[in-house]
Specification:
This protein has 7 helices and 5 strands; from the N terminus they run βββαβαβααααα. The chain is an alpha/beta fold. It has one domain: Nucleotidyltransferase, domain 5, CATH 3.30.420.10. It has a 5-stranded mixed sheet. Strand 1 and strand 2 form a beta hairpin. The chain is globular, with a radius of gyration of 16 Å.
Length: about 180
């Protein structure tokens, strides 16, 4: 695994899609950018999917990520919503694949567990922990952006140089035991 790489995290959505990019330098993740893509102005679902594809390609071309970590759709009661969400995820994955970027999918529970040590953490708890981890001053107004950063950080924790360095961590709390200076 490369010691200097960029991970793009995506929280797929059909109304708001979040994205976040981190730069991994050795064992240190640094925030590059985070944001959202607002899709509510498009009435047709197909137009939203097209915009997701185009914006994902634009983000890839601007930041040149080495890997994509994407949140898997969660099982909800509304089958139509889940199908639309799955399509949005698929389009973002297709955009990354068209640029030969490897993709890893993580469940929302896995991401929350990796970031906070609690698979049932709230979006606000995830955002607060990411704010400490990545040292950004203000939490984005849309938690979709921090959810996307969470996917990227989860990927870092799961598949990073921590393993290459002979270390393996189950989450931030375990990482802090060996790295007490990382506390903020």
């Amino acid at each position: 695994m490369a010691t200097d790489r960029i991970i793009l995290g995506i929280d797929p959505g059909t109304v708001i899609m979040g994205y976040g990019l981190i730069h991994i330098k050795g064992l240190n993740p640094e925030l590059i950018s985070t944001g959202i893509i607002k899709l509510d102005k498009f009435e047709e679902h197909s137009d939203r999917l097209k915009k997701i594809f185009e914006r994902t390609i634009a983000i890839i071309e601007e930041f040149k990520p080495d890997e994509l970590a994407i949140e898997a759709p969660f099982f909800g009661k509304n089958v139509q919503s889940m199908l639309k969400l799955g399509r949005a995820q698929g389009v973002a994955i297709a955009a990354a694949l068209s640029k030969n970027i490897p993709i890893t999918e993580y469940s929302p529970k896995k991401i929350k567990m990796s970031i906070t040590g609690n698979g049932n953490a709230s979006k606000e708890q995830v955002a607060a922990m990411l704010q400490q981890l990545l040292k950004f001053k203000q939490t984005p107004s849309h938690l979709d952006a921090t959810d996307a950063l969470g996917a990227a950080m989860c990927h870092f924790f799961q598949n990073s140089n921590l393993k290459a360095a002979g270390k393996s961590y189950t989450g931030w709390k375990a990482f802090l035991v060996d790295n007490p200076k990382r506390k903020v």
